[in-house]
Amino acid sequence: MKREFVIKSIDSAPDGAPYVVVSLTSIKDLKEGTQNPQSPFGSPKVMGFSNMNDMMKDLNKMLSGMGGMGMQSGVTQLKLEMHEYKELSLSVGDKVFLELTKAESLGV
Length: 108
Description:
The chain is an alpha+beta fold. It has three helices and four strands, in the order ββααβαβ.
């Protein structure tokens, strides 16, 4: 199976290790207009609250990505070692292909 993606962001390792996290979004999502049509990479969303009770009620939505925080839906993330990242010379906005194949198992 081969799928086409666009690089949404490239972040350094949260623990300072020598790798980067590449976030991908599918071409299909971009074409369907699930993100901001003016920017193919989306834009941050801000949730407003009138009081503390509203904030606590909507906290779960915020943490699940509905408010632009946390893991975003429709995003695939890959962890690449620094030499792989430099070899590929990736940048935000590049089109990439991800191919998955199942290994043939021989014997038991």
